Amino acid sequence: MLSTKLLSLIPFVRLAMAQNTWTFVQQGSSGIIPLELINLSPTLALMYDRPYTNPLKLADGESAWAGLWHFDTNTATPLEVKTNSFCAGGAFISNGTLVSVGGQPEDDIPGWGNATDGRMAIRLFGPCTSADGTGPGCTVFEDPENLHLVVTRWYPTALRIADGSLMIMGGSDILTTFNGADIAQNNIEFFPPRAGEAGTVRPSKFLNDTLPANLFPRYVLPSGHILMIANNQSAVYDVDTNTELMRLPDLPNGVRIGVPFDGFAQLLPLSPPLYEPTVLACGGSDKPDTITVEEMSNQDVATTQCSRITLTPAGIAAGWEVEQLPDPRLLPETVLLPNGDLMIINGAHTGQVARYSGYPSVGDSGAINSNADHPATTPIMYKPSLPSGQRLTQDGLPTTDIARMYHSAATLTGKGNIMVAASNPHPFVLSADDNPNNYSFPSEYRVEYLNPDFITNGSPRPVISKSPSQLAFNAQGTITVTIPSTLAAGELQVSLIDMGYITHGWHAGQRLVFLEHTLSGNTLTITAPPNGNIYAPGPGWIYVVADGVWSEGVQIMIGDGGNPP
């Protein structure tokens, strides 16, 4: 039950909801806590956890901390991993290989698996082309002695950039809540290393300036420059010249979204011909970054602030446009939908900071064994094309009875619904007497799907029967598509989506680009993005949307599919 104080701070809470047009359906058990979740194909997703007393077991009886999720059967199978992947970052590179970087120090507890130090790890997966995950490329490759990062990184961000390589940013040398100058990795490296930079890192003044709240710092802009967001600040960075080009206005009203304050930032869909970038930053906390752990409370109300800025000269001059979420959000997930809307899901209404939104450490956390409380169980829809004041709504969205807080995840699937999984807001289990069921919000293995009404009801939707597997930049390709007559009069959209590398509420690299297209009969001619600044070369998904109803997705490789330089 939400407190009277909290209710008074949620002006838009609805006591009665409209009839739901989306539906939660519970299907299967993940077997591990997929706090890192990456969609691989129509049939598979990759999940990373930490060594833990997970029910999913390896062949030797040890608990798994990585696995494949099978969408067709809603079951999980274990994967063997050498290093501790907990709190890593990652992304696909241009040849379709998924790269996971960094992680946590060694965890070697009998029965939990023997994980070596993961903070310098580079883990390679795929491309995995078999539907059941048993073919070549469907295992995690590691060679810690010969293939590793330059420095140790816990909580890094990895971003595929315009040449198809990874830019790896930030993190910390050790586990922490607030990053400190003595432990912070306020620097950048690349995988593969850029010419002349092997074995070196680039110092980042921006990361240094955003201490102590700069963990998991994010997006490639259409200019090819990088937008970096941390704490309440943001900057535009030129990779090629290693130059910070500008600082943007701070987020309004003292709101902070970067870890450990845990709101979100998302690049909104890009549309031709101008591909003007607009960034949305919502939720988090308005507490100062000088707050101490002792001053924090799991009853501190998160902010409802939701701000956006368009990164053009006029947009930057106008500054952040502020709206209000229907309810406060800490630790939310964001999922770009094929029609360009943004689903905001999971998280909590009260609490403080990421590691503390999870593991109990703040002054009043002991009673519920969590530093966050009041789970956010009803999603929010953000409609970026509508006028200010009309974009945020919970109408038609259902409420789940499963708390999805710290270490939860959500991703769009090839079927066009949203997979929702995980939650782990407490320390790992140390003994039989200290089991997860003793916690108010136990480790959560149940998997849900959030289905739009046309999937729930089996209503007609566009069907892609043939599509190109690869498309060069600015090249044209044809898709064979059937548009139901009931949808033919509506707007037609073609979406190219990178679903991102999902962890800790950040969907690093997630983006949607609307493609130019023409329809003649059942033949849809599409034009790929003009260059790697609009969509970095690598794998993606195409959806056809008619009158707001989208098809199942088909995979495509954008660019030549070659290795990054």
In short:
By secondary structure, the protein is mostly beta strands.
Which SSEs are present, and which pair or pack?
Layout lengths: L3 H5 L13 E8 L6 E4 L4 E5 L17 E5 L4 E4 L10 E4 L5 E4 L5 E2 L5 E2 L6 E4 L14 E2 L15 E4 L5 E4 L17 E5 L10 E2 L1 H5 L16 E5 L2 E6 L4 E5 L15 E5 L10 E6 L21 E6 L2 H6 L2 E4 L8 E4 L5 E4 L2 E4 L2 H5 L13 E4 L4 E3 L9 E2 L15 E4 L5 E4 L24 E7 H4 L6 E4 L3 E2 L4 E7 L9 E7 L2 E3 L2 E3 L2 E4 L1 E5 L2 E5 L10 E9 L2 E2 L3 E5 L7
Parallel strand pairs: 33-43
Antiparallel strand pairs: 1-31, 2-3, 2-36, 3-4, 4-5, 6-7, 7-10, 8-9, 10-11, 12-13, 13-14, 14-15, 16-17, 17-18, 19-20, 20-21, 21-22, 23-24, 24-27, 25-26, 27-28, 29-30, 30-31, 32-34, 34-40, 35-38, 35-41, 36-37, 39-40, 41-42, 41-43
Question: How would you portray this structure in words?
Answer:
There is one protein chain. The strands form 11 sheets. A 6-stranded antiparallel beta sheet has the order 5-4-3-2-36-37, with no helix packed on it. Helices cover 4% and strands 33% of the residues. Mean pLDDT is 90; it is low at 1-5, 7-19, 354-360 and 429-433. Strand 23 and strand 24 form a beta hairpin. The chain has 565 residues and is mainly β. It is built from 5 helices and 43 strands. It comes from Roridomyces roridus. Keywords: Signal.
